[in-house]
Each structure stands twice: as structure tokens, then as C-alpha cells.
Amino acid sequence: MKFLSRVIGGAFIIAILVAITLIGRTALFIGVTVFSSIGLYEIRRCFKNMSYNFPLVLALIFNLMIMITAFLNSNNLYIFVLVLITMITLVYMTFNKRYRPVDLAVMFFSLLYVSFLMSHMLRFNSTKYHWLLYIYAWGTDTFAYLVGSKIGKHKIELVSHISPNKTLEGSIGGVVGCLILALIYNAYANLGINVFLLILFTIVCSILSQIGDLIASFIKRKANVKDYGNLIMGHGGILDRFDSMLFISPIVYFITLI
């Protein structure tokens, strides 16, 4: 039943992403902005469990600024907005008595973690890289889950305090499965990337995808919550489904520049 719920929930969110990716950049902008806004709400809820609080409305305004700038895809404007957000946060910290400096530092971290990383999805110069991103994130996650649950025996002690069920077999299975999918996709989409570089990037992104999942799990454990939310059946919240994608979006953006 748990596996079925996971499949249905995963299929639902994948269907949404596929739809907005196919429709075009404007739909993707709206979708990513909504996803990141929900993600900020979810991570704020986690930090409140750790006695940190930050102004959600201000964070959502900053998130929108970041997403608009990423959509316009101007490097100079992108840097300017990040500087502007830093300055506004410092001014807000100085004149607002409700929030502690550490609360606004947590807000800034949340913006970097959720908004800044996710905004790179809007900077790709072709939708073919969005499909590559989805393969890297969800291909790794799917194969790691399937291989780990079926033949995983050797626990990874280094991350046992974060993810006690993570196995070496599952981790390797995620990388190998992701690599197979990426090579098949490259043959179909003709990304124009040297095969050796593609293999290298795929291995790196697959490993980083799993690290992104561990980072999200680490934050949840510190906040003493099981999931970031309950929006997606079998998966939890938006951040539970996008944790891997957050971490590798900037790397895939770098690939588009080659």
C-alpha cells in the first residue's frame, strides 16, 4: 500500500511538471514560483519547531523577486536582486523588533536553499535540459529506492544518523540506473554533449542528488518532523519531492553553458 501511494503521488507531481514544461517557459515560471513558495512555507514550519521564526510574507516577496529575475535570465540583474535582498534583510533586521537577527539569518538560508537553487530551473536555455534534470533527480531516487529495498544489505554508516535505511547497494543502483536513463535520453535528444562529459556529469549529479536528499532529511530530523508536509500522497510535501532537484539544478544549468 505504501509503495502504491508513493507511485500515485509521484506520478501526480511528475504529470504536473511534464505539463508545465511542455506548455512553455511562462507556465514553468508560474509552476516553479508556486512550488518554491510552498517550499518556503514548509521549511519555515520546520524551523519553527527549532524555535526559529521568520516573516513569511517578506520571504515570499523575495522568492518572487528571485524567480522573476531567473525568468528574465540576466546575470547582472540576478546579482543585483540578491544584493538588494541582502540589504533589505539587514535593514529589516535593524528596525523590526519582532524578529531576532538569527531568525532573519534562517530566512536568508531558506531563500538560498529553496528559492535560489530552484530558480535555476528557469534559467535553462532549452526544455531538453529540464528532462535531463528530471532524469537525474527522479531516476536516481527511483532506482535507489527499488534496488535498496530489494537487495540492499550494507548500511552506509556515515549517514546512518540521518537515513538509517540507506544502503550501499541502493546508492550504487541509483547512480547506475540514472546513468542508463541519461545515455538513452542523450541518444534520443542529441544534447550535443561529449559522451564522456555526459557520463561524468551524470555520476556527479546522481551522487549530489542523493546528498540533496540527505540534507533535506537532516533538516527534518533536527526539526523532529517526518515530512515537510502532506501535499503529495506517499511523499509528503513539495520539499520531500524536490529535495534532490534543488541540489542539482545549478549543476544542470552549468551543463547548458557548455
Mean pLDDT, all residues:
89
Q: Could you describe the largest sheet, including whether it forms a barrel? A: none
- Cα(first) to Cα(last) distance is 44 Å
Which class of secondary structure composition applies to the elements? mainly alpha
State the total count of DSSP E strands.
0
Helix content: over 70%
The number of helical segments is: 9
* Beta fraction: under 5%
What coarse outline follows from CA principal-axis ratios? globular
Contiguous low-pLDDT stretches (5 residues minimum) are none
Sequence of secondary-structure elements: HHHHHHHHH
- What gyration radius follows from the Cα positions, in whole Å? 19 Å
Mind explaining what this structure looks like?
By secondary structure, the protein is mainly alpha-helical. It is 77% helix and 0% strand. The protein has 9 helices and no strands. The chain has helices at residues 2-23, 25-49, 56-72, 75-95, 101-119, 127-151, 168-189, 195-223, 238-256.
